Amino acid sequence: MNIEPATPTVKNPPEQFAGDVWVDMIAVPHEPQQRMSVAVVRFAPGARTAWHSHARGQYLRVTQGVARFGGRDGTIIDVHPGQTLYTPPGEDHWHAAAGDTFMEHVAMLENGDDPAATTTWKEHITDAEFAGRPHGEAQS
């Protein structure tokens, strides 16, 4: 067993994120049979991802601020600290910092069979998609 070395905070690329978003990796696979990745992701107010999906789904635990999640069917869910959102494999979605405060979540997912295909990035969301009205709140 060992203590993992600290890795530098990385700013996420504008091809996949609108606004300022930073990631700190907590856990990454060491062995070929391992798949789990965990990261702390921080969004500046109004920052958001582009549309994307994950080969094996994703869990996002909100730790600070309010997160806004959207799906292709127009559903928008606001998620609060202490709540966890699950997105199934292959489901297109986006996430963002709702309102005028920073948002932080812990992202947990498994790599795909081809690690390069773990996340499929698509087009940026529109301002109208981001500003849509939430259809529900995540359940605790």
Structure description:
- It comes from Microbacterium lemovicicum.
- This is Cupin type-2 domain-containing protein.
- Residues 40-101 form the Cupin type-2 domain.
- It contains one helix and 14 strands; from the N terminus they run βββββββββββββαβ.
- The protein is 4% helix and 44% strand.
- The model has no long low-confidence stretch (mean pLDDT 92).
- The strands form four sheets. A six-stranded antiparallel sheet has the order 1-3-4-12-7-10, with no helix packed on it. A four-stranded mixed sheet has the order 11-8-9-14, with no helix packed on it. It has a two-stranded antiparallel ribbon with strand order 2-5.
- The protein has a single domain (10-134), classed as Jelly Rolls.
- With 140 residues, the chain is mainly beta.
- The radius of gyration is 15 Å and the shape is globular.
State the gist of this model.
It holds the Pfam family Cupin_2. The chain is mainly β. The protein has one domain: Jelly Rolls (Sandwich).
So, the CATH homologous superfamily?
Answer: Jelly Rolls
The CATH top-level class label: Mainly Beta
Content of β-strand: 35-45%
Structural class: mainly beta
According to DSSP, the number of beta strands is: 14
* Domain count: 1
Radius of gyration: 15 Å
Shape: globular
Tell me roughly what share of residues is in helical segments: under 10%
Q: Which series of helices and strands comes N to C?
A: EEEEEEEEEEEEEHE
Strand order of the largest sheet: 1-3-4-12-7-10
CATH topology: Jelly Rolls
Stretches with pLDDT under 50, minimum 5 residues: none
What characterizes the major β-sheet?
6 strands, antiparallel
Measured between the Cα atoms of the first and last residue, the distance is 34 Å
Under the CATH scheme, the architecture is Sandwich
Average pLDDT, all residues: 92
Helix segment tally: 1
